[in-house]
Backbone:
């Protein structure tokens, strides 16, 4: 038994320490938003956050993340309303949708530390995430839209703050 | 290969023109659908058995006013479920926010009205379902309006339907759909003639068609709640990981040593497949409590194989065999036989001859193949995202040794299809493992299984000979296409086409597109089945199928002819698209897309820097009878090393009528980038009978950094809607090849295009 802290809750999983985090999340915890794509860290479909960093859960073993803060697509926002999720809907990004949990999680780790990325920074950060439907340009637009929304929200917050 | 798959007798066209349409109150609200038993039962009698009726429901209106449309099409990202709802909503008069979708089972009642089966492909869905879904929506509106008129005590003709509300402007009375459904029993039968007599809206009356409404499937695809086949969880379910042999097809298992696998915690059993459907050869499933355990057990298996007849074959042997076959004058069958090319070539002032090849390509959808099987009493339940429920159900039945009528297919969202999920190989290990362990089993392919066991786009070899007269007029084309036959593999006679030389049926899915809309008086197209490739690399339908290789040859050769005769390649195409004879209509539409793409790209308006070039192509994929019209202008830069950078793709497409403009743009852009990916980045090779590429490190679809600027323009001229999911795939490679020639004088004739090939052709 290993205890994992996922989306702010401690959960026990019955998995040996060399079990990929991906399968513990999907099968033991039945949180299926995180997807299996290649099993080799080459496609990004399984991306989750560990202590805020985007990692490939197919390459991350359960034993290595015990006690760390893990976030999956289900925990990115309370109501599916993270600025990226809203932007993904506004830009109508997904086609088949299978890679999009991983795309959103990968993008979220960028915007968490850089709310004003250039196009080149977006491409460099997202290049490891494959989209077989080739929705790449919409993914880029959605990230830019979310970044702008986050800046607006934080500026509005600043203005309201007493000086 | 598929003698154990009994599909023929179970496939009956759902000829809706001979069926009544029923509207009736059922347990869940108002149910609407085509009657199952034509002309035998009236609505009252059919509805007396609501359970029977429910199964045929095309859509329902709940007491909460929600309209749920059941989609018999596989939704693999083309948003077809949402599109079907949009078509119903237009005629029904419902508010878009009230629309919901659900995915149909494999019940034949949900068969495509034109195709008579449940199959999704060919960019056919919108084209073939628009009318039936429109009439279904209109019938619902009429039934609701009549009911409302009765309740309000006003003439039905004075009522207005809009946004799920029926109102009577004179009296200012109004009722919502929900109010009407709650108010009591509604029963109405439309006879086939009455249904046909309903006057559908005209283009100028549309309020939903042509509007980019928010796709219904998108929100659940942003928060992880959309359920794909791989996400299915059944009580008591265990997991299977497969071990596939080193050769793609033809191996048999000699011995399985699972002594090490037995030591893996959670291990249950090893199952060697006995697959009489011919979908798999030499596969073994390791079953365990969890997938991680099943994978470990699979890796611990020691299996010896008889590698079979294909074990020494390589891409080169398939190509050599193709060339040998092409050299035989009596090989193959004719797909087009107009005039007398041999005679015309004899009189031509200039003859060009060239060979064009394409490599093996892999579908590689992001969701690896998977299926879950559960035996419950006499019924076999299959959970999997699949594009061809009718045939796949029969294969699952064949693998189980039961009659197909005992198989229920539960459709899921598809994590990519691209033609791969027309096949059912993934159901065989799930079914046989479930049978062997007496529990529901979910089988998931590793990416390595998925790539090496793909029903790939076949390696193709084409030879084209063209003749031009003294005025530069194209007078003859003789075109040979040698490949594995993707659709012949299915063993379904209805999917084959008679050859024009009456040498038996041919697989048009190996040669479509070669029957282009250019006027060429002497035109032969011969298709030759490469049996060696057919057996060693069972091929499938990869997004756009044959036009993906036939237009590579045709559109490259047309360009070569234009250059050889000193004509502008775009103007030369326009002159060939004269719309004479059998090309009337299509040729003009194709010409218009070419003109649109030329205009949007600024064709001929500026001088390009050295090393840059513009190339054009135009295509009429898919089948000639269901063609759509697409042109591309590609702008490339070629370095002295031969490295090609695609700077911009401009694509114009004529879709007839736009149901959802934003979706059309998304599909066309995705398809164009697929075309780019196949043209430049994707190559699979066969060695020792096996596919060499196993994951995304060696099989490398387009990534974000490789995406060029893509400009799309859509022509909506009011003709019937065409498909948009595939045509742009086929137009890009020749446009790029032609642009490379204009940039540096290198003519490339093999896909994918490599820097080495470009550099080599520069020197020549």
Residues:
């Amino acid at each position: 038994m290993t205890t994992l802290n996922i989306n702010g809750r401690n959960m026990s999983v019955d998995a040996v320490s060399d079990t990929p985090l991906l399968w513990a999340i999907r099968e033991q915890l039945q949180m299926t938003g995180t997807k299996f794509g290649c099993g080799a860290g080459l496609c990004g479909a399984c991306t989750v956050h560990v202590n805020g960093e985007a990692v490939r859960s197919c390459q991350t073993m359960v034993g290595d993340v015990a006690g760390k803060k893990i976030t999956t697509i289900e925990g990115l926002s309370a109501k599916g309303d993270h600025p990226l999720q809203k932007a993904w809907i506004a830009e109508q990004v997904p086609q088949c949708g299978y890679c999009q949990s991983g795309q959103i999680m990968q993008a979220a780790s960028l915007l968490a530390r850089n709310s004003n990325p250039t196009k080149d920074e977006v491409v460099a950060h997202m290049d490891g995430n494959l989209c077989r439907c080739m929705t790449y340009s919409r993914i880029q637009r959605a990230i830019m839209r979310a970044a702008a929304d986050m800046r607006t929200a934080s500026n509005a917050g600043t203005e309201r703050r007493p000086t | 290969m598929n003698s154990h798959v009994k599909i023929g007798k179970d496939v009956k066209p759902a000829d809706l023109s001979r069926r009544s349409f029923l509207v009736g109150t059922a347990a869940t609200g108002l149910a609407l659908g085509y009657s199952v038993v034509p002309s035998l039962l009236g609505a009252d009698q059919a509805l007396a058995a609501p359970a029977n009726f429910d199964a045929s429901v095309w859509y329902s209106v709940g007491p909460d006013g929600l309209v749920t449309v059941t989609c018999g099409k596989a939704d693999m990202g083309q948003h077809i479920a949402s599109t079907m709802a949009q078509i119903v909503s237009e005629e029904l008069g419902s508010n878009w926010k009230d629309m919901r979708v659900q995915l149909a089972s494999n019940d034949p009642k949900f068969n495509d009205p034109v195709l008579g089966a449940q199959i999704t492909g060919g960019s056919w869905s919108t084209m073939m379902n628009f009318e039936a879904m429109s009439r279904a929506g209109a019938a619902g509106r009429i039934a609701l309006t009549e009911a409302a008129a009765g309740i309000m005590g006003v003439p039905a003709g004075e009522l207005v339907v809009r946004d799920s509300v029926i109102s009577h402007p004179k009296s200012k009375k109004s009722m919502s759909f929900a109010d009407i459904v709650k108010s009591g029993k509604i029963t109405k039968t439309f006879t086939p003639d009455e249904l046909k007599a309903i006057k559908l809206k005209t283009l100028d009356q549309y309020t939903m068609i042509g509007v980019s409404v928010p796709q219904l499937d998108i929100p659940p695809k942003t928060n992880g709640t959309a359920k794909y086949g791989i996400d299915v969880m059944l009580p008591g379910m265990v997991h299977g990981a497969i071990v596939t042999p080193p050769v793609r097809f033809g191996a048999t298992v000699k011995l399985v040593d699972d002594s090490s696998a037995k030591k893996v915690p959670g291990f249950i059993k090893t199952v060697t497949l006995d697959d009489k459907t011919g979908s798999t050869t030499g596969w073994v499933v390791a079953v365990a409590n969890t997938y991680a355990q099943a994978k470990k057990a699979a890796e611990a298996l020691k299996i010896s194989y008889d590698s079979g007849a294909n074990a020494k074959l390589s891409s080169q042997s398939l190509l050599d065999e193709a060339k040998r076959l092409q050299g035989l004058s009596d090989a193959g069958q004719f797909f087009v036989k107009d005039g007398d090319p041999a005679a015309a070539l004899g009189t031509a002032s200039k003859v060009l001859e060239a060979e064009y090849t394409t490599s093996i390509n892999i579908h590689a959808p992001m969701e690896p193949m998977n299926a879950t099987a559960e035996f419950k009493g006499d019924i076999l339940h299959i959970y999997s995202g699949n594009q061809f429920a009718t045939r796949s159900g029969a294969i699952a039945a064949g693998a189980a040794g039961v009659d197909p009528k005992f198989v229920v297919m539960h459709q899921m969202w598809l994590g990519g299809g691209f033609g791969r999920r027309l096949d059912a190989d993934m159901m065989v290990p799930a079914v046989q493992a479930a049978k062997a362990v007496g529990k529901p089993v979910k089988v998931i392919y590793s990416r390595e299984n998925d790539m090496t066991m793909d029903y790939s786009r076949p390696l193709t070899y084409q030879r084209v000979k063209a003749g031009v007269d003294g005025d530069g007029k194209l007078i003859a084309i003789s075109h040979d296409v040698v490949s594995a036959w993707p659709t012949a593999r299915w063993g379904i006679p209805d999917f084959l086409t008679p050859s024009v030389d009456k040498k038996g049926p041919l697989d048009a899915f190996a040669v479509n597109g070669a029957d282009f809309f250019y006027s060429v008086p002497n035109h032969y197209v011969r298709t030759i089945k490469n049996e060696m490739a057919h057996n060693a690399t069972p091929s499938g339908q990869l997004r756009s199928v044959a036009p993906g290789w036939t237009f590579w040859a045709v559109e490259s050769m047309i360009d070569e002819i234009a250059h050889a005769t000193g004509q502008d390649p775009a103007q030369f195409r326009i002159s060939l698209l004269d719309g004479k004879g059998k090309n009337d209509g299509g040729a003009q539409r194709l010409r218009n897309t070419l003109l649109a793409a030329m205009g949007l790209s600024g064709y001929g308006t500026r001088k390009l820097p050295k090393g840059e070039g513009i190339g054009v192509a135009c295509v009429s994929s898919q089948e000639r009878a269901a063609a759509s019209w697409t042109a591309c202008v590609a702008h490339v830069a070629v370095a002295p090393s031969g490295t090609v950078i695609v700077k911009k793709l401009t694509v114009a497409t004529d879709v007839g009528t736009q149901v959802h403009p934003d979706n059309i743009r998304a599909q066309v852009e995705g398809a164009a980038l697929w075309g780019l990916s196949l043209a430049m980045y994707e190559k699979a090779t066969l060695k020792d009978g096996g596919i060499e590429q196993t994951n995304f490190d060696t099989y490398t679809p387009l990534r974000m950094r490789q995406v060029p600027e893509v400009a799309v323009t859509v022509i909506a001229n009011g003709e019937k809607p065409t498909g948009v999911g595939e045509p742009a795939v086929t137009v890009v490679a020749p446009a790029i090849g032609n642009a490379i020639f204009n940039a540096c004088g290198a003519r490339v004739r093999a896909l994918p295009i490599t820097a080495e090939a470009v550099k080599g052709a520069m020197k020549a």
